[in-house]
Amino acid sequence: MSSAVQARVRAVFKGTDFLQADVDSLADDSDLYAAGLNSHATVNLMLALEEAFDVELPDRLLRRRTFSSINAIAEALVEIGVKEDAT
Amino acid sequence: MSGWLAAARAVGVETASRHAKDVDAAARFPSESFAALKAARLLGIMVPASEGGDGAGIAEVVSICHALGQYCASTAMIYAMHQIQVSCLVRHGAGSDWHRGFMRRVADEQLLLASATSEAGVGGDVRSSICAIEEVDGRFSLAKQATVISYGADSDAIMVTARRTPASPASDQVIVVVPKSDCVLDGQSDWDTLGMRGTCSNGYHLKATGEIAQIIPKPYADVSAQTMLPTSHLVWSALWSGIATDAVARARAFVRAEARKKGGAPASAWRLAEAASLLQLMKSNVVAALRQYEAALGSEDRLSALSFAVAMNNLKTGSSQMAVQVINHALLICGLSGYRNDTPFSLGRHLRDAHSAALMVNNDRILANTGNLLMALREDPELLP
Q: Which ipTM was obtained for this model?
Protein backbone atom coordinates (compact mmCIF):
# COMPACT_ATOMS: atom_id res chain seq x y z
CA MET A 1 0.00 0.00 0.00
CA SER A 2 1.17 3.48 -0.81
CA SER A 3 2.34 5.60 2.04
CA ALA A 4 0.57 8.61 0.50
CA VAL A 5 -2.75 7.66 2.09
CA GLN A 6 -1.03 7.06 5.42
CA ALA A 7 0.56 10.50 5.19
CA ARG A 8 -2.83 12.12 4.56
CA VAL A 9 -4.31 10.16 7.48
CA ARG A 10 -1.52 11.44 9.71
CA ALA A 11 -2.34 14.99 8.64
CA VAL A 12 -5.91 14.53 9.91
CA PHE A 13 -4.56 13.97 13.44
CA LYS A 14 -2.54 17.22 13.42
CA GLY A 15 -3.86 19.82 15.80
CA THR A 16 -6.48 17.46 17.30
CA ASP A 17 -6.68 15.82 20.71
CA PHE A 18 -7.84 12.43 19.37
CA LEU A 19 -4.66 10.86 20.75
CA GLN A 20 -2.71 11.47 23.91
CA ALA A 21 0.54 10.77 22.06
CA ASP A 22 1.93 12.91 19.22
CA VAL A 23 1.04 11.18 15.93
CA ASP A 24 4.63 11.70 14.71
CA SER A 25 5.87 9.46 17.50
CA LEU A 26 3.74 6.54 16.24
CA ALA A 27 4.47 3.98 13.53
CA ASP A 28 1.89 3.25 10.82
CA ASP A 29 1.03 0.00 12.60
CA SER A 30 1.03 1.40 16.18
CA ASP A 31 -2.09 0.67 18.24
CA LEU A 32 -4.01 3.95 18.32
CA TYR A 33 -6.13 2.78 21.26
CA ALA A 34 -2.97 2.29 23.32
CA ALA A 35 -2.09 5.86 22.29
CA GLY A 36 -5.27 7.13 23.96
CA LEU A 37 -7.90 6.95 21.22
CA ASN A 38 -11.26 6.47 22.99
CA SER A 39 -14.75 5.84 21.64
CA HIS A 40 -15.73 9.52 21.76
CA ALA A 41 -12.63 10.56 19.83
CA THR A 42 -13.19 7.74 17.34
CA VAL A 43 -16.41 9.37 16.15
CA ASN A 44 -14.72 12.75 15.78
CA LEU A 45 -11.82 11.10 13.95
CA MET A 46 -14.28 9.43 11.59
CA LEU A 47 -15.99 12.73 10.84
CA ALA A 48 -12.61 14.40 10.26
CA LEU A 49 -11.56 11.61 7.89
CA GLU A 50 -14.82 11.90 5.93
CA GLU A 51 -14.23 15.66 5.61
CA ALA A 52 -10.56 15.38 4.61
CA PHE A 53 -11.05 12.59 2.07
CA ASP A 54 -14.54 13.63 0.93
CA VAL A 55 -15.93 10.14 1.50
CA GLU A 56 -18.63 8.48 3.58
CA LEU A 57 -17.56 5.52 5.65
CA PRO A 58 -20.28 2.86 5.37
CA ASP A 59 -21.73 1.43 8.60
CA ARG A 60 -20.02 -1.91 8.03
CA LEU A 61 -16.64 -0.19 8.51
CA LEU A 62 -17.72 1.60 11.69
CA ARG A 63 -16.15 -0.86 14.07
CA ARG A 64 -13.22 -0.75 16.38
CA ARG A 65 -10.74 -2.51 14.08
CA THR A 66 -11.10 0.12 11.33
CA PHE A 67 -9.51 2.78 13.56
CA SER A 68 -6.95 0.59 15.32
CA SER A 69 -3.89 1.94 13.42
CA ILE A 70 -2.94 4.38 10.67
CA ASN A 71 -2.54 1.40 8.34
CA ALA A 72 -6.00 0.08 9.21
CA ILE A 73 -7.57 3.48 8.53
CA ALA A 74 -5.73 3.79 5.21
CA GLU A 75 -6.81 0.29 4.25
CA ALA A 76 -10.46 1.14 4.90
CA LEU A 77 -10.17 4.36 2.89
CA VAL A 78 -8.59 2.55 -0.06
CA GLU A 79 -11.34 -0.09 0.19
CA ILE A 80 -14.00 2.56 -0.35
CA GLY A 81 -12.20 4.10 -3.31
CA VAL A 82 -9.59 6.57 -2.04
CA LYS A 83 -6.81 6.54 -4.65
CA GLU A 84 -3.47 5.40 -3.33
CA ASP A 85 -1.52 7.84 -5.52
CA ALA A 86 -3.71 10.86 -4.88
CA THR A 87 -2.09 13.77 -3.11
CA MET B 1 -39.06 -23.61 31.20
CA SER B 2 -35.44 -24.68 31.62
CA GLY B 3 -34.43 -26.51 34.78
CA TRP B 4 -32.30 -23.52 35.77
CA LEU B 5 -35.18 -21.11 35.39
CA ALA B 6 -37.49 -23.37 37.40
CA ALA B 7 -34.85 -23.60 40.14
CA ALA B 8 -34.40 -19.81 40.14
CA ARG B 9 -38.14 -19.28 40.37
CA ALA B 10 -38.28 -21.65 43.32
CA VAL B 11 -35.56 -19.60 45.05
CA GLY B 12 -37.60 -16.48 44.27
CA VAL B 13 -40.87 -17.85 45.66
CA GLU B 14 -39.56 -19.72 48.66
CA THR B 15 -36.65 -17.55 49.76
CA ALA B 16 -36.08 -14.19 48.03
CA SER B 17 -39.66 -12.93 48.35
CA ARG B 18 -39.82 -13.97 52.01
CA HIS B 19 -36.77 -11.92 52.97
CA ALA B 20 -37.08 -9.04 50.47
CA LYS B 21 -38.75 -6.70 52.95
CA ASP B 22 -36.11 -7.20 55.63
CA VAL B 23 -33.23 -6.98 53.12
CA ASP B 24 -34.67 -3.64 52.01
CA ALA B 25 -35.40 -2.31 55.51
CA ALA B 26 -31.99 -3.27 56.91
CA ALA B 27 -30.04 -2.54 53.70
CA ARG B 28 -28.36 -5.89 54.14
CA PHE B 29 -26.95 -8.48 51.74
CA PRO B 30 -29.66 -11.03 50.77
CA SER B 31 -27.69 -13.89 52.31
CA GLU B 32 -30.64 -16.32 52.40
CA SER B 33 -31.25 -15.88 48.65
CA PHE B 34 -27.60 -16.43 47.82
CA ALA B 35 -27.32 -19.47 50.04
CA ALA B 36 -30.30 -20.87 48.10
CA LEU B 37 -28.91 -19.85 44.67
CA LYS B 38 -25.60 -21.50 45.54
CA ALA B 39 -27.39 -24.62 46.83
CA ALA B 40 -29.27 -24.76 43.50
CA ARG B 41 -25.85 -24.34 41.79
CA LEU B 42 -27.03 -21.38 39.77
CA LEU B 43 -23.89 -19.19 40.10
CA GLY B 44 -21.67 -21.17 37.71
CA ILE B 45 -24.14 -22.13 34.99
CA MET B 46 -22.37 -20.05 32.31
CA VAL B 47 -19.01 -21.75 32.91
CA PRO B 48 -18.38 -24.11 29.96
CA ALA B 49 -18.88 -27.83 30.52
CA SER B 50 -15.16 -28.35 29.80
CA GLU B 51 -14.40 -26.38 32.99
CA GLY B 52 -17.02 -28.03 35.16
CA GLY B 53 -19.98 -25.72 34.50
CA ASP B 54 -23.21 -26.15 32.57
CA GLY B 55 -22.38 -24.07 29.49
CA ALA B 56 -25.63 -22.11 29.80
CA GLY B 57 -26.10 -19.21 27.39
CA ILE B 58 -26.97 -15.58 27.98
CA ALA B 59 -30.68 -16.26 27.28
CA GLU B 60 -30.94 -18.52 30.35
CA VAL B 61 -29.27 -15.91 32.54
CA VAL B 62 -31.46 -13.11 31.19
CA SER B 63 -34.62 -15.10 31.92
CA ILE B 64 -33.39 -15.94 35.44
CA CYS B 65 -32.72 -12.23 36.13
CA HIS B 66 -36.23 -11.41 34.93
CA ALA B 67 -37.67 -14.08 37.24
CA LEU B 68 -35.67 -13.01 40.31
CA GLY B 69 -36.63 -9.36 39.71
CA GLN B 70 -40.22 -10.31 40.47
CA TYR B 71 -39.36 -11.34 44.03
CA CYS B 72 -36.38 -9.30 45.30
CA ALA B 73 -34.74 -6.70 43.06
CA SER B 74 -31.55 -6.62 45.14
CA THR B 75 -31.14 -10.38 44.78
CA ALA B 76 -31.77 -10.09 41.03
CA MET B 77 -29.31 -7.22 40.66
CA ILE B 78 -26.53 -9.00 42.54
CA TYR B 79 -27.13 -12.16 40.51
CA ALA B 80 -27.08 -10.06 37.31
CA MET B 81 -23.85 -8.25 38.23
CA HIS B 82 -22.22 -11.57 39.13
CA GLN B 83 -23.16 -13.06 35.76
CA ILE B 84 -21.80 -9.98 33.92
CA GLN B 85 -18.42 -10.76 35.48
CA VAL B 86 -18.73 -14.47 34.71
CA SER B 87 -19.53 -13.76 31.06
CA CYS B 88 -16.42 -11.54 30.74
CA LEU B 89 -14.34 -14.29 32.33
CA VAL B 90 -15.82 -17.05 30.16
CA ARG B 91 -15.71 -15.14 26.88
CA HIS B 92 -12.28 -13.55 27.26
CA GLY B 93 -10.42 -15.88 29.61
CA ALA B 94 -10.78 -19.12 27.68
CA GLY B 95 -7.28 -18.82 26.19
CA SER B 96 -5.59 -18.49 29.57
CA ASP B 97 -4.73 -21.33 31.95
CA TRP B 98 -5.18 -19.16 35.02
CA HIS B 99 -8.65 -18.03 34.00
CA ARG B 100 -9.77 -21.52 33.00
CA GLY B 101 -8.67 -22.71 36.44
CA PHE B 102 -10.61 -19.88 38.02
CA MET B 103 -13.74 -20.71 35.99
CA ARG B 104 -13.53 -24.22 37.41
CA ARG B 105 -13.47 -22.73 40.91
CA VAL B 106 -16.51 -20.55 40.11
CA ALA B 107 -18.44 -23.68 39.12
CA ASP B 108 -17.12 -26.01 41.86
CA GLU B 109 -17.20 -23.58 44.77
CA GLN B 110 -20.10 -21.42 43.48
CA LEU B 111 -17.97 -18.28 43.89
CA LEU B 112 -19.73 -14.91 43.85
CA LEU B 113 -17.91 -12.35 41.64
CA ALA B 114 -18.09 -8.59 42.19
CA SER B 115 -16.59 -5.75 40.18
CA ALA B 116 -14.62 -2.60 40.85
CA THR B 117 -14.95 -0.46 37.75
CA SER B 118 -15.95 2.90 39.25
CA GLU B 119 -13.15 5.07 40.57
CA ALA B 120 -12.93 8.37 42.38
CA GLY B 121 -11.68 11.17 40.11
CA VAL B 122 -12.80 9.94 36.66
CA GLY B 123 -16.21 11.62 36.84
CA GLY B 124 -18.18 8.40 36.56
CA ASP B 125 -16.52 7.33 33.29
CA VAL B 126 -15.84 3.61 33.72
CA ARG B 127 -13.85 3.61 30.47
CA SER B 128 -11.14 5.70 32.14
CA SER B 129 -8.86 4.66 34.99
CA ILE B 130 -6.47 6.53 37.22
CA CYS B 131 -5.06 3.49 39.03
CA ALA B 132 -2.58 1.33 37.14
CA ILE B 133 -1.11 -2.16 37.13
CA GLU B 134 2.41 -1.99 38.56
CA GLU B 135 4.43 -4.99 37.47
CA VAL B 136 7.44 -6.36 39.31
CA ASP B 137 8.94 -9.77 38.46
CA GLY B 138 5.79 -11.30 36.93
CA ARG B 139 3.57 -10.06 39.75
CA PHE B 140 1.34 -7.03 39.90
CA SER B 141 0.21 -4.65 42.57
CA LEU B 142 -2.75 -2.32 42.32
CA ALA B 143 -4.42 0.30 44.52
CA LYS B 144 -7.82 1.70 43.58
CA GLN B 145 -10.16 4.22 45.21
CA ALA B 146 -13.32 2.38 44.25
CA THR B 147 -16.37 4.60 44.77
CA VAL B 148 -18.62 1.52 44.79
CA ILE B 149 -18.03 -2.20 44.94
CA SER B 150 -21.50 -3.72 45.08
CA TYR B 151 -21.66 -6.61 47.61
CA GLY B 152 -17.87 -6.33 47.86
CA ALA B 153 -17.94 -7.54 51.45
CA ASP B 154 -19.91 -10.69 50.58
CA SER B 155 -18.17 -11.54 47.29
CA ASP B 156 -15.49 -14.17 46.78
CA ALA B 157 -13.53 -12.33 44.09
CA ILE B 158 -13.50 -8.90 42.45
CA MET B 159 -12.80 -7.99 38.84
CA VAL B 160 -10.92 -4.69 38.82
CA THR B 161 -10.21 -2.30 35.95
CA ALA B 162 -6.94 -0.34 35.80
CA ARG B 163 -4.60 1.28 33.30
CA ARG B 164 -2.37 -1.30 31.61
CA THR B 165 0.82 0.35 32.95
CA PRO B 166 1.56 3.48 35.00
CA ALA B 167 2.56 5.15 31.67
CA SER B 168 -0.67 4.22 29.82
CA PRO B 169 -3.35 6.76 28.90
CA ALA B 170 -6.56 6.71 30.99
CA SER B 171 -8.51 4.81 28.31
CA ASP B 172 -5.93 2.01 27.83
CA GLN B 173 -7.34 -0.31 30.47
CA VAL B 174 -7.16 -3.96 31.45
CA ILE B 175 -9.36 -5.99 33.81
CA VAL B 176 -7.86 -8.30 36.40
CA VAL B 177 -9.44 -11.06 38.48
CA VAL B 178 -8.61 -10.63 42.16
CA PRO B 179 -9.68 -13.36 44.60
CA LYS B 180 -10.68 -11.81 47.92
CA SER B 181 -7.77 -13.59 49.63
CA ASP B 182 -5.37 -11.46 47.52
CA CYS B 183 -6.86 -8.11 48.36
CA VAL B 184 -7.52 -5.74 51.22
CA LEU B 185 -10.73 -3.70 51.26
CA ASP B 186 -10.68 -0.60 53.39
CA GLY B 187 -14.26 0.67 53.75
CA GLN B 188 -14.75 4.32 52.72
CA SER B 189 -18.51 4.80 52.46
CA ASP B 190 -21.76 3.04 53.39
CA TRP B 191 -24.83 2.31 51.28
CA ASP B 192 -27.96 3.96 52.70
CA THR B 193 -29.99 4.64 49.57
CA LEU B 194 -33.50 5.11 48.24
CA GLY B 195 -33.62 1.64 46.69
CA MET B 196 -31.59 -1.41 45.68
CA ARG B 197 -30.58 -1.34 49.32
CA GLY B 198 -29.55 -4.99 49.49
CA THR B 199 -26.79 -4.58 46.90
CA CYS B 200 -24.63 -3.04 49.65
CA SER B 201 -22.68 -0.97 47.12
CA ASN B 202 -20.21 0.48 49.61
CA GLY B 203 -17.10 2.39 48.60
CA TYR B 204 -13.67 0.95 49.33
CA HIS B 205 -10.00 1.61 49.01
CA LEU B 206 -8.88 -1.60 47.35
CA LYS B 207 -5.31 -2.91 47.45
CA ALA B 208 -4.45 -6.08 45.57
CA THR B 209 -1.48 -8.14 44.49
CA GLY B 210 -1.22 -11.24 42.32
CA GLU B 211 0.23 -12.89 39.26
CA ILE B 212 0.30 -11.08 35.92
CA ALA B 213 -1.56 -14.13 34.57
CA GLN B 214 -4.68 -12.95 36.41
CA ILE B 215 -5.07 -10.07 33.94
CA ILE B 216 -7.58 -10.88 31.16
CA PRO B 217 -5.39 -10.95 28.02
CA LYS B 218 -7.71 -8.77 25.90
CA PRO B 219 -7.80 -4.96 26.23
CA TYR B 220 -10.66 -3.95 28.54
CA ALA B 221 -11.98 -1.78 25.66
CA ASP B 222 -12.78 -5.00 23.78
CA VAL B 223 -14.09 -6.84 26.84
CA SER B 224 -16.31 -3.85 27.58
CA ALA B 225 -17.68 -3.34 24.06
CA GLN B 226 -18.13 -7.00 23.19
CA THR B 227 -19.30 -8.44 26.48
CA MET B 228 -19.64 -6.22 29.52
CA LEU B 229 -21.75 -3.52 27.87
CA PRO B 230 -24.23 -5.80 26.07
CA THR B 231 -24.56 -8.30 28.93
CA SER B 232 -25.01 -5.53 31.52
CA HIS B 233 -27.75 -3.86 29.59
CA LEU B 234 -29.47 -7.17 28.86
CA VAL B 235 -29.46 -8.57 32.39
CA TRP B 236 -30.32 -5.22 33.96
CA SER B 237 -33.19 -4.57 31.55
CA ALA B 238 -34.46 -8.10 32.16
CA LEU B 239 -34.57 -7.65 35.93
CA TRP B 240 -36.14 -4.18 35.64
CA SER B 241 -38.84 -5.83 33.49
CA GLY B 242 -39.16 -8.35 36.31
CA ILE B 243 -39.82 -5.57 38.86
CA ALA B 244 -42.38 -4.04 36.48
CA THR B 245 -43.96 -7.46 35.87
CA ASP B 246 -44.62 -7.90 39.58
CA ALA B 247 -46.00 -4.35 39.83
CA VAL B 248 -48.47 -5.09 37.02
CA ALA B 249 -49.38 -8.41 38.66
CA ARG B 250 -50.23 -6.52 41.86
CA ALA B 251 -52.25 -3.94 39.94
CA ARG B 252 -54.13 -6.69 38.10
CA ALA B 253 -54.90 -8.45 41.40
CA PHE B 254 -56.15 -5.14 42.82
CA VAL B 255 -58.44 -4.48 39.84
CA ARG B 256 -59.80 -8.03 40.02
CA ALA B 257 -60.48 -7.75 43.76
CA GLU B 258 -62.26 -4.41 43.26
CA ALA B 259 -64.32 -5.82 40.38
CA ARG B 260 -65.44 -8.74 42.52
CA LYS B 261 -66.37 -6.46 45.40
CA LYS B 262 -68.23 -3.92 43.28
CA GLY B 263 -69.56 -6.14 40.53
CA GLY B 264 -67.72 -4.49 37.65
CA ALA B 265 -64.41 -3.05 36.51
CA PRO B 266 -63.21 -0.09 38.62
CA ALA B 267 -62.55 3.28 36.98
CA SER B 268 -58.81 2.59 36.95
CA ALA B 269 -59.06 -0.57 34.83
CA TRP B 270 -58.16 1.24 31.58
CA ARG B 271 -54.83 2.10 33.15
CA LEU B 272 -54.07 -1.59 33.52
CA ALA B 273 -54.18 -1.82 29.72
CA GLU B 274 -51.71 1.07 29.52
CA ALA B 275 -49.37 -0.60 32.01
CA ALA B 276 -49.62 -3.98 30.27
CA SER B 277 -48.87 -2.36 26.93
CA LEU B 278 -45.73 -0.68 28.28
CA LEU B 279 -44.65 -3.90 29.92
CA GLN B 280 -45.06 -5.70 26.60
CA LEU B 281 -42.79 -3.08 24.99
CA MET B 282 -40.20 -3.58 27.73
CA LYS B 283 -40.16 -7.34 27.29
CA SER B 284 -40.08 -7.10 23.48
CA ASN B 285 -37.12 -4.74 23.74
CA VAL B 286 -35.20 -7.17 25.94
CA VAL B 287 -35.97 -10.15 23.72
CA ALA B 288 -35.09 -8.30 20.48
CA ALA B 289 -31.78 -7.08 21.93
CA LEU B 290 -31.06 -10.56 23.26
CA ARG B 291 -31.56 -12.04 19.78
CA GLN B 292 -29.36 -9.31 18.29
CA TYR B 293 -26.61 -10.12 20.78
CA GLU B 294 -26.89 -13.86 20.17
CA ALA B 295 -26.69 -13.29 16.40
CA ALA B 296 -23.56 -11.14 16.82
CA LEU B 297 -21.80 -13.47 19.29
CA GLY B 298 -19.66 -15.27 16.73
CA SER B 299 -18.26 -12.08 15.21
CA GLU B 300 -15.95 -9.61 16.93
CA ASP B 301 -16.66 -7.11 14.16
CA ARG B 302 -20.40 -7.19 14.75
CA LEU B 303 -19.93 -6.97 18.51
CA SER B 304 -17.63 -3.96 18.22
CA ALA B 305 -19.75 -2.15 15.61
CA LEU B 306 -21.00 1.29 16.63
CA SER B 307 -24.55 0.35 15.60
CA PHE B 308 -24.49 -2.56 18.06
CA ALA B 309 -23.38 -0.27 20.90
CA VAL B 310 -26.21 2.13 20.03
CA ALA B 311 -28.79 -0.69 20.11
CA MET B 312 -27.60 -1.90 23.54
CA ASN B 313 -27.47 1.66 24.92
CA ASN B 314 -31.03 2.25 23.72
CA LEU B 315 -32.16 -0.93 25.43
CA LYS B 316 -30.80 0.37 28.74
CA THR B 317 -32.08 3.93 28.59
CA GLY B 318 -35.49 2.78 27.30
CA SER B 319 -36.01 -0.03 29.81
CA SER B 320 -34.89 2.05 32.77
CA GLN B 321 -37.40 4.78 31.98
CA MET B 322 -40.26 2.42 31.16
CA ALA B 323 -39.85 0.48 34.42
CA VAL B 324 -40.68 3.60 36.43
CA GLN B 325 -43.59 4.48 34.11
CA VAL B 326 -45.12 1.01 34.45
CA ILE B 327 -44.85 1.09 38.25
CA ASN B 328 -46.37 4.59 38.32
CA HIS B 329 -49.39 3.25 36.44
CA ALA B 330 -49.63 0.33 38.88
CA LEU B 331 -49.46 2.77 41.79
CA LEU B 332 -52.28 4.90 40.40
CA ILE B 333 -54.35 1.75 39.91
CA CYS B 334 -53.79 0.48 43.45
CA GLY B 335 -54.09 3.95 45.00
CA LEU B 336 -53.44 4.13 48.73
CA SER B 337 -53.30 0.33 48.91
CA GLY B 338 -50.22 0.53 46.69
CA TYR B 339 -48.79 3.50 48.54
CA ARG B 340 -49.05 1.79 51.93
CA ASN B 341 -46.14 -0.46 52.88
CA ASP B 342 -48.28 -3.14 54.52
CA THR B 343 -50.70 -4.45 51.90
CA PRO B 344 -50.45 -7.23 49.28
CA PHE B 345 -50.53 -4.37 46.73
CA SER B 346 -47.63 -2.33 48.20
CA LEU B 347 -45.45 -0.82 45.44
CA GLY B 348 -43.07 1.42 47.38
CA ARG B 349 -40.11 -0.92 47.17
CA HIS B 350 -40.71 -1.59 43.47
CA LEU B 351 -40.72 2.12 42.75
CA ARG B 352 -37.65 2.88 44.86
CA ASP B 353 -35.70 -0.02 43.36
CA ALA B 354 -36.70 0.94 39.81
CA HIS B 355 -35.48 4.52 40.26
CA SER B 356 -31.92 3.17 40.45
CA ALA B 357 -32.18 2.04 36.82
CA ALA B 358 -31.67 5.48 35.28
CA LEU B 359 -28.71 6.17 37.58
CA MET B 360 -26.56 3.06 37.43
CA VAL B 361 -24.42 4.27 34.56
CA ASN B 362 -26.39 7.50 34.37
CA ASN B 363 -28.82 7.70 31.46
CA ASP B 364 -27.66 11.23 30.68
CA ARG B 365 -24.12 9.92 30.17
CA ILE B 366 -25.32 7.05 28.00
CA LEU B 367 -27.60 9.29 25.93
CA ALA B 368 -24.73 11.76 25.34
CA ASN B 369 -22.51 8.87 24.28
CA THR B 370 -25.21 7.46 22.00
CA GLY B 371 -25.83 10.90 20.50
CA ASN B 372 -22.14 11.10 19.68
CA LEU B 373 -22.16 7.64 18.07
CA LEU B 374 -25.28 8.50 16.07
CA MET B 375 -23.37 11.27 14.28
CA ALA B 376 -21.35 8.54 12.64
CA LEU B 377 -24.25 6.28 11.69
CA ARG B 378 -27.00 6.39 9.13
CA GLU B 379 -30.57 5.29 9.75
CA ASP B 380 -31.31 1.61 9.08
CA PRO B 381 -34.19 1.74 6.56
CA GLU B 382 -35.16 -1.93 7.14
CA LEU B 383 -37.72 -3.29 9.59
CA LEU B 384 -36.33 -6.80 9.98
CA PRO B 385 -32.72 -7.44 10.88
A: 0.79
Chain A positions touching B378 (Cβ under 8 A) are 59
Q: Which residues of B touch A64 (CB under 8 A)?
A: 221-222, 225, 304
- Is the same domain home to B369 and B237? yes
Cα–Cα distances in angstroms (integers) from residue B156 to residues B46, B78, B114, B152, B202, in the given order: 17, 13, 8, 8, 16
B272 plus B159 within the same structural domain: no
What is the rounded end-to-end Cα distance, in angstroms, of chain B? 27
Q: What is the pLDDT of residue B313?
A: 97
B263 and B368 fall within a common domain: yes
pLDDT tens digits in sequence order for chain A, 87 residues long: 457 999 999 999 998 999 988 999 999 999 999 999 988 899 999 999 999 999 999 988 998 899 999 999 999 999 999 988 754
SS3 B113: strand
Q: Are residue B227 and residue B370 in the same domain, yes or no?
A: yes
Q: Residue B349: pLDDT band by 50, 70, 90 thresholds?
A: very high
What residue numbers bound the domain in which B181 lies? 115-214
Question: How does pLDDT run across B1-37, given as a tens digit for each residue?
Answer: 789 999 999 999 999 999 999 999 999 999 999 999 9
Mutate to test the interface with A, among B125, B306, B308, B312 (most CBs of A within 10 A): B306
A3-79: CATH number: 1.10.1200.10
DSSP string, B43-106: SSTTS-GGGTS----HHHHHHHHHHHHTT-HHHHHHHHHHHHHHHHHHHHSTT-HHHHHHHHHH
Residues 6+ apart with CB under 8 A from A32: A19, A26, A67, A68, A69, A70
Q: B-chain residues within 8 Å CB-CB of A67? A: none
Q: Model confidence over B270-292: pLDDT tens digits?
A: 999 999 999 999 999 999 999 99
Chosen domain end from B75, B91, B112: B112
Q: Tell me: do B59 and B121 sit in the same domain.
A: no
* Overall average pLDDT of the B96-112 stretch: 98
Contact A47 B376 (CB under 8 A): yes
Same domain, B242 and B313: yes
Q: What is the CATH number of the domain that holds B50?
A: 1.10.540.10
